[in-house]
Design brief:
Blueprint: H1 3-9, E1 23-28, E2 44-52, E3 55-63, H2 72-83, E4 91-92, E5 95-99, E6 103-110, E7 113-120, H3 121-139, E8 141-144, E9 149-151, E10 166-169, H4 172-177, E11 181-182
Length: about 190
């Protein structure tokens, strides 16, 4: 499902801007917002949607205290029957999780009521990889082997360093430990 398809289903959704990793998060509160159809969203307190590159990757639904299954065991049993899932979900992280092909279903109790989260595991790995790459790139500094100066990745003067004379350091501390100094054009 895309952001636009979600908005077509629930017009109250306000489209969110994606962050630097391509993730857009949207939350709606049918229980508290009078613009929602109380019958269509009966017993639903909050719905959170996560999108990666415009595609839905996780859906979290938090229920109210009026929901029919008010213990984790009853909730897992009821959801399992409703969705034709296995009835045994291993305990994990304060709830129960069912791992399927490329997605997981996690049930827990929040504020005394049940909640469920369906998540695309492959998409979550993509996000984790993007974050790790961004963190590595943010710390990476380039040294000039001729001048023994180093340049942060956002320093315009880095373009003056000849490719064959470049050396990579994981961060400024590693560069300084190797005897390199911050280029004056980058200060």
């Amino acid at each position: 499902m895309t952001l636009e398809q979600a908005k077509a289903q629930v017009p109250q959704i306000r489209l969110a801007r994606a962050d630097q990793f391509g993730v857009a998060r949207i939350s709606i509160n049918p229980y508290f917002d009078p613009s929602f159809d109380r019958i269509r969203f009966a017993d639903v307190r909050t719905i959170s949607l996560d999108f990666l590159d415009g595609r839905l990757i996780s859906l979290w639904i938090g229920y109210e205290g009026t929901f029919k299954w008010q213990t984790l065991d009853k909730f897992v049993t009821g959801i399992s029957k409703s969705l034709n899932f296995p009835d045994t979900w291993p305990a994990t992280r304060g709830g129960r999780q069912l791992d399927c092909n490329d997605f997981s279903v996690f049930a827990s109790m929040i504020a005394g009521s049940p909640s469920i989260r369906l998540s695309d595991d492959t998409a979550q790995e993509t996000i984790a990889t993007r974050r790790e790459e961004a963190a590595a790139a943010a710390e990476l500094v380039i040294g000039d082997q001729t001048t023994k100066l180093y340049y942060p990745p956002d320093c315009a003067a880095l373009t003056k360093v000849i490719e064959t004379k470049r050396i990579k350091f994981k961060d400024k501390d590693e560069a300084e430990g190797a005897g390199y100094k911050l280029a004056t054009d980058c200060q």
